[in-house]
Write a structure and sequence with these properties.
2 copies of one chain form a homodimer. The first copy, chain A, has helices at 48-59, 78-96, 117-129, 136-142, 195-207, 240-263, 282-294, 296-303, 309-318, 348-351, 353-357, 383-390; strands at residues 8-13, 25-40, 62-72, 103-110, 151-159, 162-171, 184-189, 213-214, 224-229, 271-279, 329-332, 335-339, 342-343, 360-366, 372-379. In chain A, 59% of the residues are buried. In chain A, helix 1 packs across helix 2, helix 2 (78-96) runs parallel beside helix 3 (117-129) and helix 5 packs parallel to helix 6. Chain A folds into 2 domains: 8-263, L-amino peptidase D-ALA esterase/amidase (4-Layer Sandwich); 271-390, Roll (Ubiquitin-like (UB roll)), CATH 3.10.20. The first copy, chain A, is 35% helix and 28% strand. With 394 residues, chain A is of the alpha+beta class. The longest helix of chain A has 24 residues, at 240-263. Chain A is built from 12 helices and 15 strands. In chain A, strands 1, 2, 3, 4, 5, 6, 7 and 9 form an 8-stranded mixed beta sheet that branches. A 7-stranded mixed beta sheet of chain A has the order 8-15-10-14-11-12-13, sandwiched between helices. Chain A is globular. Chains A and B meet through helix 8, helix 9, strand 13 and helix 12 of A and helix 8, helix 9, strand 13 and helix 12 of B.
Chain lengths: 394, 394
Amino acid sequence: MFTIPAGYTFSAVSAGFKYTGRNDLSLIVSECPAHAAGVFTTNRFQAAPVVKSRTSLDRSPMARAILVNAGQANACTGDEGLMLCDKTRIMVGEKLGMAPEDILVASTGVIGDQLRMDLWEKAVPELVDALGHCDALDMAKAIMTTDTFPKVVSKTVSLEQGEIRLLGMCKGAGMICPHMATMLGFVICDAQVEDGWWAESLRAAVDVSFNAITVDGDTSTNDCILALANGASGVCALSAQDKRLLKAALIDLCQDLAFRIVQDAEGGTKVLRIAVSGARSKGQAEIVARVVGHSPLVKTALYGQDPNWGRIVAAIGRSGADFNPDEVSVALGDTVIFQKGQPVDGDWDSILAPVLKRDEINVQISLGSGRGKYELLASDLTEEYIKINAQYRT
Amino acid sequence: MFTIPAGYTFSAVSAGFKYTGRNDLSLIVSECPAHAAGVFTTNRFQAAPVVKSRTSLDRSPMARAILVNAGQANACTGDEGLMLCDKTRIMVGEKLGMAPEDILVASTGVIGDQLRMDLWEKAVPELVDALGHCDALDMAKAIMTTDTFPKVVSKTVSLEQGEIRLLGMCKGAGMICPHMATMLGFVICDAQVEDGWWAESLRAAVDVSFNAITVDGDTSTNDCILALANGASGVCALSAQDKRLLKAALIDLCQDLAFRIVQDAEGGTKVLRIAVSGARSKGQAEIVARVVGHSPLVKTALYGQDPNWGRIVAAIGRSGADFNPDEVSVALGDTVIFQKGQPVDGDWDSILAPVLKRDEINVQISLGSGRGKYELLASDLTEEYIKINAQYRT
């Protein structure tokens, strides 16, 4: 079903942090030290596991394991939260015979509560015992919160020396759900890589995948992507061409995972692919894509299958990007409905009805003749989103 | 009921632009030339009446009338739209014996359609005949679109020389509804003022009122505030103290009107008063207030009467403002629930239940010990908003 990179084992158990009848504590272990890279939330409030994983990676770009709990975010928990986070690494490290700082950590769940150490103490021995008796899908299920399906993708790259394998998993349904914070992604790979290159490739992949999606425009205190590459494939000394192929596969993998997050957006019914081109720079294209992708009016219109170009045009106009209104065109699907600053005549309700029924809708915006372009995946906005988020805690 | 400034008459008739059984074309006329000021949308796509009114005010700061239609926005209509806009001013100007450029214009309604000149030709004579037979409330009703109630406020300022009167009206329910674009506001006053001072006072009043509210974060192609001051009160040569009083009344009037827009927000059930203080500058405070006020997660939580401080804190953290997380405090009503970067213990669900039931909720955010502060009024976000906006055109 999924191709698993060599040299990794998984575990998932039920600790009862928040959920009952499902696993909520999980672990990936690499049989040998792996080159590790991470991309973390830019939120000024950073959860304890974010602080701890970042610090470990700053000190050494090698790691052995990733430990994840769902149900408690360990965010806004002060010094005690940091101390308890360390304790969980020590507990797991002792059982595994690893230094605590070799274990990267990630949490998702309710903000503000301290970790329930009694539950950890009970669960950690079971967690370590279960290593190797679980597969990647078990783990992907154990990291879910409001997700409606687990998100796992694998890729294989064939090189002259042999095959290398990548596997990624993530959770996330609202871009953030601070009481269930939030987006987490893990990538494992069995190639032998160089630290700097691996970190830089992860950053590049995240930029065009997890950083290019939006559900509600929020960024949580817990967002992080961690990536390990352990060399267990035996394929080493990658050539420049090999690296290009591996990087392309990593980007592909991250984009597939990011797509699944938008697909599983809270209450969402559609994935909107907002492609802006002809901008004066990539940054200008991104501004427009984000304003359109965050506009509640655009998102509700497309949910309602309404070819309401006026809302898209108004969002472009207020974005703050620099362009000439007379050069702006907008297409839904492949049909241009607004061209050179003016509406194109047509019975769009009937012509576009089949396009707007789809699960994935392309919104193409051209701002002019510049070279800047950017693509953003966004969800639509529905009554169900309101329901989920207005009633989350009750 | 309302105190009407001296020297103004109103008219409102039914032209049938979009609505049936209600008035949709209206007019305010000043008996003598009035000092006129305007604040217009910053959207790059500007409706024809915005372009025309702005041009008139650039040429001369005097005007005699404001002509408003509801149902057709005359936005994204190109050169023909500009020409037809001029025609409407010529038609009304001929009947009134005024130069077209003395008539300021504002439109709200469906974007992209050209004005129905046949309807204008039929309605304009009736409109001019009805002058003086209508009151301010008739006019406030005629400028409504998705509004559920008319919005009129009057103020009287007592000076040594006598009384001066201000009356304002506005429409707006979504901050923008591009197919029903959008927010319009009109202020009339019978003081004798100086051009520069009047324009500058209007700008200051708009900054702390109409520019300090948000429903869905959108800014339409048609937003404008127009203000006339005709001197008909006989009160002239205002002293510095008189000006301060008049400016304070103008600010008060605009804030009252702006509050009503948020109160009437599409699908909204609550007005959120988001007050940020202790920021390093006013601009920094504004950034935080806007990110919190636009956050769908904050807006749905408060709709759901959920004291979910985690969502407020996460929005502050991702705002991009510069502050020390350990100095941040958040209060709902007057109750501090997050202090110095950490949650305050308490059974907030029960303690805050009475506060969260109210129609107006104060969200107080302190970022530290800086002097920067900003206050924003925001609506909550409800299933009804989605319903209105997903089904708007059908």
